[in-house]
Amino acid sequence: MTKPLEVTITIDTKFIIGGAFDDPRKKAVGNRAALCEVDGKGQGVDFLLETFNKYDTRASFFVECVNYFYFGDEPMQSIVRKIQSAGQDTQLHIHPCWLNFNQNPEIGRFDTNDACSGRSYEELKKIFELSIEVFERWTGKRPEAIRTGNLMVDLNVYKVMSDLNIPLASNVGLEIFKPKEGELQLFSGRSKIDDVMEVPVFTYADKDIMGRMPAKSLQIASCSWPEMRYLLKKARKNGIENIVIHTHPFEFIKRRDEQYLEITRNRVNQERLENLCAFIKEHDQDFTTVDFGSQVDVWKNTPQKNINNFRIPPRYRLGRMANNFINAMIWNY
């Protein structure tokens, strides 16, 4: 019997600028964008942890750390403790824009550019070193994996990661950001880039109304549950060994404004996650959940084929679009 398909749910855990760059009267959004409390109940990180505990799900929380230069150690350090207390994996997420708030001249000056791609080696290494320093203080460990903000990546990122001895990356999601380098046109599997093993967000294709086959990355907020179930079954049948799924805590709420002043539970996205976790647990002969931290020793040495021709029937595109449109338009749907 072949081993189960490994599903890795990844959660980019970050705070939100909330218009603070454009309007000095506005403040960046902290807990409200990560814990997402509605009527006293956390619909973001807490909902995720409760769901993972209920279904014995392993997941990796990619935690953004240089928000420290705006908020200080709290509140994100408390969120890290909450994640670790629940037995879940923490890895490093990097959004350089937060360094614009740095007031220490010895660290240097940074603009509001949030991309890790398109930077010099020296600047990028400094950003990564500052992020790793905060991550180590908050988690008590060095990250085994890094994900760049908005999945904006180029080959320089891997040079820096290699020199900093970070063995794993999950920087590629071709629907979200398409790198210019051919080596980074990765849809699935595991690929060694400059001594770093890239484990991309799983990406597939479906036919649009123009007959094109655009890339679609597997994300809780944009993929319907029937679509996800079909993908998992087809991937298992076709011998794919690992699938990475992408999400954020704030995708499990709806908000009316960039300051997150009025929010409500996102029932549709929460049910998608619950259905996913329940399905994997129910079909444990065929599927299992794993995280980056526990798999680092295996993954860093074992590449997998980049399957770039994985397609799904058009009916799933139509169902997804209808489901997402209704959910976006109706506040209490």
Topology:
Blueprint: E1 5-13, H1 31-34, E2 37-38, E3 41-42, H2 45-54, E4 59-64, H3 68-71, H4 76-85, E5 89-94, H5 121-139, E6 145-148, H6 155-163, E7 168-169, E8 191-193, E9 196-198, E10 203-205, E11 215-217, H7 225-237, E12 242-247, E13 253-255, E14 263-265, H8 267-282, E15 287-289, H9 292-299, H10 314-329
Parallel strand pairs: 1-4, 1-12, 1-15, 4-5, 5-6, 6-7, 7-9
Antiparallel strand pairs: 2-3, 8-9, 10-11, 13-14
Helix pairs in contact: 2-8, 5-6
Describe this structure in words.
This protein has 333 residues and is α/β, with parallel strands linked by helices. The chain has one domain (5-329): TIM Barrel, CATH 3.20.20.370. 33% of the residues lie in helices and 17% in strands. It contains ten helices and 15 strands. Strands 1, 4, 5, 6, 7, 8, 9, 12 and 15 form a nine-stranded mixed beta sheet that branches. Strand 13 (253-255) and strand 14 (263-265) form a beta hairpin. Helix 5 (121-139) packs across helix 6. It is globular, with a radius of gyration of 19 Å. The model has no long low-confidence stretch (mean pLDDT 96).
Mean pLDDT: 96
- Strand coverage percent: 15-25%
Uncertain runs: none
Number of helices: 10
Name the quaternary structure.
Answer: single chain
Derived from helix and strand composition plus strand pairing, the structural class reads alpha/beta
Q: How can the largest sheet be summarized?
A: 9 strands, mixed
CATH-defined superfamily: Glycoside hydrolase/deacetylase
Which overall shape is indicated by the principal axes computed on the Cα atoms?
Answer: globular
Named CATH topology? TIM Barrel
Q: Quickly give the CATH architecture.
A: Alpha-Beta Barrel
* The CATH C-level class name: Alpha Beta
The proportion of residues forming helix, as a percent range, comes to 25-40%
What is the helix/strand order?
EHEEHEHHEHEHEEEEEHEEEHEHH
Q: Give the termini distance in whole angstroms.
A: 43 Å
Radius of gyration: 19 Å
Q: How many domains, as an integer?
A: 1
SS elements, strand count: 15
